[in-house]
Amino acid sequence: MKPTVHDIAAVAGVSLATVDRVLNRRPGVSARTRDKVEAAVSTLGFVRDVAAANLAKGRVYPLTFVLPANDNSFMRDLEAEVREAIARAPVERTAISIVKVPPFDADALVRALDALIDEKPAGVALVAVDAPDVVAAVDRLVEAGIPVVTLVSDLPTSRRSHFAGIDNLAAGRTAASLLGRFVGREPSSIAVVAGSLLVRDHRERLEGFRAVMAKDYPHLTVLDAIEGRDDPAVVERLLGAELDRRGDISGIYSLGAGNRGLLAALRSAPRRDRIAVVAHELTGTTREALDVGLIDAVLNQDAGHEVRSAIRVLKAKADGAPLLAGQERIRIDIFLKDNLP
Amino acid sequence: MKPTVHDIAAVAGVSLATVDRVLNRRPGVSARTRDKVEAAVSTLGFVRDVAAANLAKGRVYPLTFVLPANDNSFMRDLEAEVREAIARAPVERTAISIVKVPPFDADALVRALDALIDEKPAGVALVAVDAPDVVAAVDRLVEAGIPVVTLVSDLPTSRRSHFAGIDNLAAGRTAASLLGRFVGREPSSIAVVAGSLLVRDHRERLEGFRAVMAKDYPHLTVLDAIEGRDDPAVVERLLGAELDRRGDISGIYSLGAGNRGLLAALRSAPRRDRIAVVAHELTGTTREALDVGLIDAVLNQDAGHEVRSAIRVLKAKADGAPLLAGQERIRIDIFLKDNLP
DNA sequence: CTGTTAGCGCATTCAA
DNA sequence: TTGAATGCGCTAACAG
C-alpha cells in the first residue's frame, strides 16, 4: 500500500500535525524532528495525495487570464477556450477570471498586471507584449510568489514560470520549407505579411523564415514585410498594391492575422492561381481558403491545448508539483486541405 | 458554493445513505424517494466530486494494455510510454499492466482478450488486428461491462468505446498532397512501401494516398504497394529492386515501419537526391534522415498523447463521466527538418 | 515546539 | 426501504 501521513507519523514517532508542518514547510518545527520526518518520508517513499489534500483544504485555485481585447478570430477563440475552462471550474477546483486589456499596449498591460498583485491569485496567464516594462511587471508578480505563464507570445527574458505557445522560430522555418517547395525552381519573389514587428512571435517567425529562405532557397527573394496590424482592411490595401506593383511574386507568407484582407487581395490578383500561400491560425476564414485552394498550408497553434496547458502548469506551480513535459509541449500544427480536423 | 451530498439530502429530506444509493443506482430505494432525490439533484445542479468519491472508495483503476511484441521503434516507444504511465500510477490511481502478444496474430490477440474477461479490469486498451474474431472478442469485453479503447489501429465495426489514434485516411491524403507538391510537374512514378495490407491503418493510409494522387496529381503514377512486413531487410530488398528496375521514380511514400531498410535502399539508389520521400513515425532513424535531407517529411502520431488519452478515456468511461473531445483528438503531426521537437 | 481533534465530500458497513 | 456512524488521506484550528 501507498504510505500515508499516518505511516510516516508512526515511523518518525511524531504526530500528524507535525508531519503536516514539515510537508508544507510551515514554521514551528525543530530541526531534529524535521530531520526525522524527512527521513521517514524518503525511506517510505511517501508522496502526498494531492486530491485528498485539496479536499481537506477546500482548495480552489484562483487564476487570472489577461487577454488582449483584439477582435481577430484567434484571440476570440482563445477567449472562448478560457470560458470553457470557466465552465469546468467546479470540477477542476479553479476560479478563473478574465481581464481584458487593449491590444499592443504595454502600459495598459503593466497596469493590469500590477493590479493583480494585491488580489493574490494562485497564478496568472497573459499574452505578453514584448516590452521592458512588461518584463518588469511580470517579475514583480513572480517576486510576489505568483506563478506566471506567458501565452502565445513569450517573454523569455522575464522570470515567467512557463511559456504555453509554439516555437515561433521553428514555425517561420517550417513556413519557409513548405513555401520553398511549393513554388517552382525559377527565380521569383515572396511577399511577407506580418501584423506588427513589435510583438515577439511575429518577429521570430519572420526571422526563422528568412533564415531558411536564404539558406535553402537562394533563388527566391523575400520582400520586406508588410505590417498589416492584423487588420483585414490594411492588409488588403498594402498587399494588393504590392501584388499590382510586381509581377514576380510566386508566394506569400502571412505570419500574422487579418487573413480576410489577404484573401481579398489575392482574389483580385492577376496570377492568383500561381501564387502559393502559407498562413497562420486555422479559423473559419483560413479553413475555407484551404478548402478552395487559395491557401496551401496553415500553421496553427491549438488554443484549447494552450489554455488547458496553462491551467495545468499554473496549478502545478502553485503546488510546487512537477509536470509532464511531453503533455505541455504545444505543437506547430500543419494543416493542408487534406488533414483538416 | 457547490452543492454537496448533504445539501441534496437536506432538500430531499432523506439521509446521506439514500442519496448515495440513488446517485450510484443501487437498489433498495422506493420510486418515490428516488424521484425526490433526483429532483433535488437537478434543481441544485449537483455534480459529484470524483476526487472525493475516489478517496472514499480507495478506488484504483486496474487497466490493461495489450500490445504487439513488435520490435520496431514505434511500438517500443508506445510501450515506453505505458511504462511511464505505470510510474505515475500511484498519483493517478491506476494499476496498469501490460500484456504482450505476437504481432499480426489475430488468434493470439483473441486469446489474450478473452483471458481478461475474468480479471475484470476497469478498462482495456489494445492495438487491434483487423479481423472478425478480434471484433467479436472486443465485443465480448464490452458486453462484460469493460470499456475498450483501440490504440493506433482501429476496429470501427466493433463496439469499442473509443479510438486513440490518428485518422489514417487523412494521413494518406496528406502524404499525397505533400509528395505531389514536392516532386516536379513532369510525369513520373511514385513508389509506395507498406508493412502489411492486413492491418487497417496501413490500408487506410494507402487508400487516402491513392485518392488524392488520382484526383490532384494525375501526371504521377502510383506503383503497386510493396509489402515490407515492417522489416528493414525485406524493405531494402524489395524497394532496392524497384528503384533499380525503373528510372522514373520521383517519390516514395513509406506508410509503415522498417524505415531503416528504406534508407539503405535509397542510399544506393542512382538518383537519390531527386527522390522526394514522405514517411511515418518520428524515430531516431527518420529524424536523422530528415536532418540530412534523405526524407522530406514525416507524419507522426504522438505515442505519449495516445497512451495518456487512452488512460483518461478509460477512467472516464469506467466512471460514466464525460470527456473533453478536443483533448482526446490525436493529431497527425507533420515534421519537416525545421520543426523537429 | 508539539499533539488532539474535527472535518473536507463521499461511500459503506451495520442497524433499524 | 431507510438512516446513523465511521473512515478515506490530508489540513487546520485549538490546546498544551
Automatic annotation (TrEMBL), chains A, B:
CDD domains: HTH_LacI (cd01392), PBP1_sugar_binding (cd06307)
Pfam short name (any one): Peripla_BP_4
GO molecular function: DNA-binding transcription factor activity; transcription cis-regulatory region binding
Keyword Transcription regulation: yes
InterPro entries: HTH_LacI, Lambda_DNA-bd_dom_sf, Peripla_BP_I, SBP_2_dom
Keywords of the record: DNA-binding, Transcription, Transcription regulation
Sequence ranges assigned to domain HTH lacI-type in this UniProt record: 3-57
PANTHER family attached to this UniProt entry: LACI-RELATED TRANSCRIPTIONAL REPRESSOR, TRANSCRIPTIONAL REGULATORY PROTEIN
Protein name: LacI family DNA-binding transcriptional regulator
Species for this entry: Rhizobium terricola
Higher taxonomy: Bacteria, Pseudomonadati, Pseudomonadota, Alphaproteobacteria, Hyphomicrobiales
